[in-house]
C-alpha cells in the first residue's frame, strides 16, 4: 500500500492541474501502473498531462465511473498514506516489508478488480491506444534491458571495488613490510644525517668563531682608529688652541706694531716738522746771522743769548731724536721677536705637517687593513654562501630523510614482533633474576646452617672442655695416688698440660676467629645484599632519569638544530647588514679620505702661504684665516665622523636587538610553520582522500539519480502504457517495478554499506597509523628499557658470580676450619689415649710395687720366724 502513495498524490496533483487548465476533473488511470513511484517529477507530470490531453476526448464517457473510482481511490490513498507512514516507521525490517507486500497485494487485487470493471468499459478506447502502448512497452523493455545492463555494470563495479579493496589490503600489508624495511634505512639515514649535521654544525661553529674573531679584530681596529682619530683630534685642537693663541699674540703684536708705526710716523712727521723748523730756524739763523753779523757789532750780547737758546733747542731736539731712535730700535727688536715667533710657528706647522703625514701613512695602513678585511669578508661571504648551499642540500636530504622516515614508520609490526621477543627475553631475565634471588635465599639458609654447625661445634668444644676438666680431676686423683711417681711423671704431665692448654687456646682462638669470620661474612653479605639492592634501585631510578633526560635531550637537540638553523639565517641577515654598514663606512671613509687629501693640499697651500707670509704679513694673515676656517671644517668633519660613529653604534645596537627579536620570531614562526605544514600535509592528504571518496560517491549518486530519473520517466511512461496494456502488462510491470525497487533498495543499501565500510576503513587506517606511531614509540621505549635491563642483568650476573665466589671462599674456609678441628680432635684423642696408657702403666707399676712390698714383708717375717 505504501508504494501507491506517491502515484495517487501525483494523480491528484495532475487532476488539479488539469482542472485548472480546462481538462477533465478526475482521471483514474494514472496511478495503476507504477506502484513503486516514490518522488513526483514535474517533467514526467507534464508529459503525462500531454498524453492525458490527447486521450481526453476518448475518455469523457468514463468520467462518472472514474468519479466513483476516484472516491474509492481517495479512500485508498488515505489508507496508502497511513500504510506508508507505517512502512516508513518499519523500514529496514523484512517482516514489516513482507506484511506490507501482502497488504499491497491485497490492495492490488482490489485494484485489479476495479481495473477489470473499468477495462470492460474502456476496451474500445484501449484498442485504439494499444499500438501506442505496445511501442511504449517496447521502449520500456529496452529501458529495462538498459537498466539490467546498468545493474550488471554496477555489480561488476562492486566486484571491482571489492577486488580493489582486497588489493588495497594487500598493498597495505606490502606497505607495512616496506615500512619495516624503510625504518632501518631511516635509522641509518638519521644516524648519517646526525653525523652530517654534527660535522656541519662543527664546521659552521668554527666558521662563526672565525667570523666573530674577524669581527672582533675589525672592532679592535675600529677602536684603534677611533682612538687615533681622537688623538689626532686632540692634537688638532691643541694645535688650534696654540695657533689661536699665536694668532691672538700676533694680532696683539700687530696692533702694537701698528701703534708703534703710528707713533713712529708721528715721530717722523714730528721730526720732519722739527727738521723743517730747524731748516727754517737755520734759515732764520742765517738770516738772523747775516742780520746779526750786520748788527753783531750792535747786538753781540743778544746774539749770544739767542745762540744759547738755539743750542738748548737743538739739544732738546737731539734728545727727542734719540728717544725716537730708541723707540725705533725697540720696534725693530719687537719685529725681530715677532719674526722669531713666526719662525717658531712655522716649525710647529712643519711638525703638524709631519704628524699629518704620519697620520696619512697610518690611514694608508688602515686602508690596506680595510682592504684585507674586505677580501676576508668576501671570502667569508663566499664560504657562507657555500655553507648555505650545503645547508640547502642538507635540508633537501633531510626532506628526503623525512619521507623515508615516514615510509619507515610503516615498518613497525616487525618491530612489534621484536618487541614481543624482547618482552619474552625480559620475562626470562626476570625469571633469571628470581632464580638469582632464590639462590641468594639459599645462600642465606646455607649461612644459617653453617652458623648452626658452628654453634654445635662450640657445644662440642664445651663438652670436650668438660671432659678435659674431668680428665684433669681424674689426673689429680691419680697424682694423689701416684705420689711416689710425681717426681718422674710431673715433667711429662706438665708438658702434656701445656700442650693441652696451647691446643685449647688454639682451638678457642680458631673457633672465635671462625665465628667472627662467619659473623663478618654474614654481616658483609647482608650489607652487600642491602647495598646491592639499594644500588640497583638507585641505578634503576638513575636509568629511568637518564631515559627521560635522553628523551628531553633528543627533543632539545631537535630544537637546537632548529635554533641553529634560525641562528644561521639570523647570522646571514646580520652579516648582510654588517656588510652593508661596512660598505657605508667605507664610502664615508672614502669621502673622508678625499676630504683629507683636499685638506692636505690645503695644508700645503697654507705652508706656501706661510712662506710668503714671512714676506707679506697681510697675505699670511689671510692664509692663516683660511687655514683656521679649514681646520674648523676638519673639526666639524671630525665631529661629524664621531657623530656618525655613535649613530652607527646605536644602529648596530638596535639592529642587534631587532636581530634578537627577529630570531625569536623566526623560531616561533618556524615552529608554527612546521606544525602548520605537517597539519596542512595531513589535511591535504585527508582532503584528497575525502575528495576522491566524495567524487566516487557523487558519481555513484549521480548515476543512481539518473537511474532513478530514468526509472521515474519509464514508470510514468508505464503509467500511460498501463491505461492500454491490460492485466498481463500491468502485472508484469508491477512485478518488474517491484524487482527494480528491490534492486534499487538493495543497491542503495549496498551503497550505504560501502560508504560505511569506506568510512570504517578510513577510520581503521587512521587508527592503524596512530597505533603504528604509538607502537613505534613504545618500541623505542621498550628497546631502551631492554638495553637497560640487559645491562642490569649483566651487572646482576657479575655480582652474583662475585657473591658465589665469596660464598665458595667462605665454604672453603669453613671446610678448612672443619679439617683443622678434626685434626685437633684427633690430636686430643691421641693425647687421651696416651694419657690412658700412662694411667694404665702407672696402675700396673703401683700394683707391682704393692705386690713386691707384700713379698718383701712376707720374706722378712719368714726370716724373723
From TrEMBL:
Span of domain Myosin tail: 46-837
InterPro entries reported for this sequence: Myosin_tail, XRCC4-like_C
Species the sequence originates in: Trichinella zimbabwensis
Higher taxonomy: Eukaryota, Metazoa, Ecdysozoa, Nematoda, Enoplea
Key word Nucleotide-binding present: no
GO aspect biological process, one term: myofibril assembly
Keywords assigned by UniProt, alphabetized: Coiled coil, Cytoplasm, Motor protein, Muscle protein, Myosin, Thick filament
Protein's gene: unc-15
Ranges in a coiled coil: 45-841
Localisation per UniProt entry: Cytoplasm, Myofibril
Function: Paramyosin is a major structural component of many thick filaments isolated from invertebrate muscles.
Listed GO CC annotations: myofibril; myosin complex; myosin filament
Protein name per its UniProtKB record: Paramyosin
Sequence similarity: Belongs to the paramyosin family.
UniProt-listed Pfam families: Myosin_tail_1
Taxonomic superkingdom: Eukaryota
Principal location: cytoplasm
Amino acid at each position: 500500500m505504501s508504494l501507491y502513495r506517491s502515484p495517487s498524490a501525483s494523480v491528484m496533483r495532475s487532476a488539479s492541474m488539469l482542472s485548472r487548465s480546462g481538462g477533465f476533473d478526475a482521471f483514474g488511470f494514472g496511478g495503476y501502473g507504477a506502484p513503486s513511484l516514490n518522488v513526483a517529477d514535474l517533467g514526467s507530470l507534464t508529459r503525462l498531462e500531454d498524453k492525458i490531453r490527447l486521450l481526453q476526448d476518448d475518455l469523457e464517457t468514463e468520467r462518472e465511473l472514474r468519479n466513483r473510482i476516484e472516491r474509492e481511490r481517495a479512500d485508498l490513498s488515505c489508507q496508502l498514506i497511513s500504510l506508508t507512514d507505517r512502512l516508513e516507521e518499519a523500514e529496514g525490517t523484512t517482516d514489516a516489508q513482507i506484511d506490507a507486500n501482502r497488504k499491497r497485494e491485497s490492495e492490488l487485487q482490489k485494484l485489479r478488480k476495479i481495473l477489470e470493471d473499468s477495462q470492460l468499459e474502456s476496451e474500445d478506447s484501449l484498442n485504439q491506444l494499444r499500438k501506442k502502448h505496445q511501442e511504449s512497452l517496447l521502449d520500456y523493455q529496452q529501458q529495462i534491458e538498459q537498466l539490467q545492463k546498468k545493474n550488471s555494470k554496477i555489480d561488476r563495479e562492486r566486484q571491482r571495488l571489492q577486488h580493489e579493496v582486497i588489493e588495497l589490503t594487500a598493498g597495505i600489508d606490502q606497505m607495512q613490510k616496506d615500512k619495516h624495511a624503510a625504518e632501518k634505512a631511516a635509522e641509518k639515514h638519521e644516524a648519517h644525517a646526525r653525523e652530517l649535521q654534527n660535522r656541519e654544525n662543527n664546521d659552521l661553529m668554527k666558521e662563526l668563531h672565525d667570523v666573530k674573531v674577524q669581527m672582533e679584530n675589525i672592532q679592535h681596529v675600529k677602536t684603534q682608529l677611533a682612538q687615533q682619530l681622537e688623538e689626532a683630534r686632540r692634537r688638532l685642537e691643541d694645535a688650534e688652541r696654540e695657533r689661536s693663541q699665536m694668532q691672538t699674540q700676533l694680532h696683539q703684536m700687530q696692533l702694537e706694531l701698528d701703534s708703534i708705526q703710528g707713533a713712529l710716523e708721528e715721530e717722523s712727521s714730528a721730526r720732519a716738522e722739527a727738521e723743517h723748523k730747524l731748516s727754517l730756524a737755520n734759515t732764520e739763523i742765517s738770516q738772523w746771522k747775516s742780520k746779526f753779523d750786520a748788527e753783531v757789532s750792535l747786538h753781540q750780547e743778544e746774539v749770544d743769548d739767542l745762540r744759547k737758546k738755539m743750542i738748548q733747542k737743538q739739544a732738546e731736539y737731539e734728545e727727542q731724536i734719540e728717544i725716537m731712535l730708541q723707540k725705533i730700535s725697540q720696534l725693530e727688536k719687537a719685529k725681530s721677536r715677532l719674526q722669531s715667533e713666526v719662525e717658531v710657528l712655522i716649525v710647529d706647522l712643519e711638525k703638524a705637517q709631519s704628524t699629518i703625514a704620519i697620520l696619512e701613512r697610518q690611514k694608508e695602513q688602515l686602508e690596506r687593513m680595510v682592504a684585507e678585511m674586505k677580501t676576508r669578508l668576501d671570502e667569508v661571504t663566499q664560504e657562507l654562501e657555500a655553507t648555505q648551499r650545503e645547508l640547502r642540500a642538507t635540508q633537501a636530504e633531510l626532506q628526503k630523510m623525512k619521507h623515508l622516515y615516514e615510509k619507515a614508520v610503516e615498518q613497525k609490526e616487525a618491530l612489534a614482533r621484536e618487541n614481543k621477543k624482547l618482552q619474552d627475553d625480559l620475562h626470562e631475565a626476570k625469571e633469571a633474576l628470581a632464580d638469582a634471588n632464590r639462590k641468594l635465599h639459599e645462600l642465606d639458609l646455607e649461612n644459617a646452617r653453617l652458623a648452626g654447625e658452628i654453634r654445635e661445634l662450640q657445644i662440642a668444644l664445651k663438652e670436650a672442655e668438660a671432659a678435659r676438666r674431668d680428665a684433669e680431676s681424674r689426673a689429680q686423683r691419680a697424682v694423689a695416688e701416684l705420689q711416689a711417681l710425681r717426681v718422674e711423671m710431673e715433667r711429662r704431665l706438665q708438658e702434656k698440660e701445656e700442650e693441652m692448654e696451647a691446643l685449647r687456646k688454639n682451638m678457642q682462638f680458631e673457633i672465635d676467629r671462625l665465628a667472627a669470620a662467619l659473623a663478618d661474612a654474614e654481616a658483609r653479605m647482608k650489607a652487600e645484599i642491602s647495598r646491592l639492592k639499594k644500588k640497583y634501585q638507585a641505578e634503576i631510578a638513575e636509568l629511568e632519569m637518564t631515559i627521560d633526560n635522553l628523551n628531553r635531550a633528543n627533543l632539545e637537540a631537535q630544537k637546537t638544530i632548529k635554533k641553529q638553523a634560525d641562528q644561521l639565517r639570523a647570522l646571514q641577515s646580520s652579516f648582510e647588514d654588517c656588510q652593508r654598514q661596512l660598505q657605508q663606512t667605507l664610502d664615508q671613509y672614502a669621502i673622508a679620505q678625499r676630504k683629507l687629501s683636499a685638506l692636505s693640499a690645503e695644508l700645503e697651500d697654507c705652508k706656501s702661504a706661510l712662506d710668503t707670509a714671512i714676506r707679506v704679513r697681510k697675505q699670511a694673515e689671510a692664509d692663516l684665516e683660511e687655514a683656521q676656517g679649514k681646520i674648523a671644517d676638519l673639526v666639524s668633519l671630525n665631529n661629524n665622523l664621531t657623530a656618525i660613529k655613535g649613530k652607527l653604534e646605536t644602529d648596530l645596537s638596535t639592529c642587534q636587538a631587532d636581530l634578537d627579536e627577529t630570531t625569536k620570531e623566526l623560531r616561533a614562526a618556524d615552529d608554527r610553520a612546521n606544525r602548520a605544514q605537517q597539519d596542512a600535509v595531513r589535511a591535504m592528504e585527508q582532503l584528497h582522500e575525502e575528495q576522491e571518496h566524495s567524487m566516487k560517491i557523487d558519481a555513484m549518486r549521480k548515476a543512481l539519480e539518473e537511474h532513478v530519473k530514468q526509472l521515474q520517466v519509464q514508470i510514468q511512461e508505464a503509467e500511460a502504457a498501463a491505461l492500454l496494456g491490460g492485466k498481463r502488462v500491468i502485472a508484469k510491470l508491477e512485478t518488474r517495478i517491484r524487482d527494480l525497487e528491490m534492486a534499487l533498495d538493495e543497491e542503495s543499501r549496498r551503497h550505504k554499506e560501502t560508504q560505511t565500510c569506506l568510512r570504517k576503513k578510513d577510520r581503521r587506517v587512521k587508527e592503524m597509523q596512530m597505533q603504528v606511531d604509538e607502537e613505534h614509540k613504545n618500541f623505542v621505549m621498550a628497546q631502551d628499557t631492554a638495553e637497560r635491563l640487559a645491562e642490569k642483568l649483566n651487572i646482576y650476573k657479575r655480582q652474583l658470580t662475585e657473591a658465589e665466589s665469596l660464598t665458595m671462599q667462605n665454604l672453603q674456609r669453613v671446610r678448612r676450619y672443619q679439617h683443622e678441628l678434626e685434626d685437633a680432635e684427633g690430636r686430643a684423642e691421641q693425647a687421651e689415649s696416651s694419657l690412658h696408657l700412662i694411667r694404665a702403666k702407672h696402675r700396673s707399676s703401683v700394683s707391682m710395687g704393692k705386690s713386691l712390698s707384700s713379698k718383701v714383708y712376707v720374706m722378712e717375717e719368714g726370716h724373723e720366724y
